[in-house]
Amino acid sequence: MPKTTFYNLSATRRARIEEAAIDEFCKNGLRSAVLNNIVANSGIAKGSFYQYFENLEDLYAHVLTLVQKRKTDLVASLETPNSIMDTFGYLRWLIQISVVFMLREPRLAKIEQRDFVDHPVINSIDPETGERISGDGRFHALLTQGVLHDDLATWVDTDMAAYVLNLIANLIAPYMVDRIGDKASSLADGSVDIAYDPLVQALFDNLMDIIEAGIARDPQIRKDFYSK
Amino acid sequence: MPKTTFYNLSATRRARIEEAAIDEFCKNGLRSAVLNNIVANSGIAKGSFYQYFENLEDLYAHVLTLVQKRKTDLVASLETPNSIMDTFGYLRWLIQISVVFMLREPRLAKIEQRDFVDHPVINSIDPETGERISGDGRFHALLTQGVLHDDLATWVDTDMAAYVLNLIANLIAPYMVDRIGDKASSLADGSVDIAYDPLVQALFDNLMDIIEAGIARDPQIRKDFYSK
DNA sequence: GTAGAATATGACCGATTAGTCATAAAAGGA
DNA sequence: TCCTTTTATGACTAATCGGTCATATTCTAC
User: Fold this and answer.
1) Strand C footprint at Cβ < 7 Å?
2) B91 touching A, CB under 8 A?
3) What is the ipTM of this complex?
4) Full-model pTM
5) Contact, B179 vs B105, CB < 8 A?
6) Where are the domains of chain A?
7) pLDDT digit string, tens, across residues B55-106
């Protein structure tokens, strides 16, 4: 946990330090991060660093909270999903958020991914039901709602499904980017997000069809199939 | 690439070095591995190390090939899947292999996972068809066969599906182990593989049902559902 | 303006690192 | 046996590391 002096800093100085830390940690993780690089790149004295943090590990923990914060900010910046959005529309939105995050904040996403592999199984226990909750709880909550709304097949193990969906959300983005390669349209100016590229959306459609076919109670794609 | 002197070594000496290298690399990856630990733990002189390898990176590359080799050995050691096994039986077998590998060789699996996150998108091009092949090709080949045998839904993007299945195979094991926790049966002596624990198999059944429902042309679970 | 508290600084230190090299030991061929 | 080639060794070096601390600067309250 950063010391209070860190929070007393001006926003710009704090941002410079955080920026340098992100740069360093995204390269090869905590263990091989070099403090000298961080202080050099942020333009502060090494002694100052120790006024703000106990050590590198302390800074790393702070960066991990930053990752979550920036992701939350991203969610807030995009329009809230329509309340009448159904389970699978919302699921698509959740996964797409992760992809957009990786495209907009590749360094933070890298840090998050590494952390994910080092601690792939994060879970908590629901205090009311005593039920296991995998991941950060977003997918678990969604699937639980999906069950209540009769949108999900009853035989699906929701906690495992939540884990797998979290897995996909975390690591599908680099595939999509690589898959469409330089065929991405209208990205030269960088103003249009690659996540909204038609080719990526087509891949997304396919992915969501597979997921829906996999866990929905009454998947549209199967109805289409059976009706043919 | 190791120098020829390394291959001239006795098998036991070579094994000692590889063992120490695996121990070191599985902890925190290449960048933070410490050569002194490896030479100390393998009981060789530091000077000797440089007779065998150019540097740490060279050794790391060798360990990565070791990972693949041991995985291949594991596949060979388990009975070959029945030739009449169908697409999804074979798919289950493929995923299960990855889980067994992680349970039997956790250090190698850890190294592989880290490598996977650092280079999540590995792909090659089929020389005949010019088609893209994601991952190590096993899942891609299986799905391609599945399409030919009419076992897969035609609308499924096979390369993306191969990527996702590879993802699941690589990272589902820690979930399953944590999920069943200490409820694992008859494992005290370590003679029975946790992968064959009934609880794990039940989870596997569920996972495979989801996957089959997701990508099969005519999923059994859906037929069951519709027949009810 | 001034005193005292809070913050900033970078030279410095001891520890640790990858890599070198002179020398010793072992192996091999005659 | 003796000479040559190959292999083994660990003390050593130069560079780099995290962390400290005496000192300088800035801020705050009156």
Assistant:
1) A 4-5, 8-9, 13, 44-48, 50-52; B 33-37, 46-47, 50, 55-56
2) no
3) 0.88
4) 0.90
5) no
6) 4-68, 78-226
7) 999 999 999 999 999 999 998 888 766 666 789 999 999 999 888 898 889 9
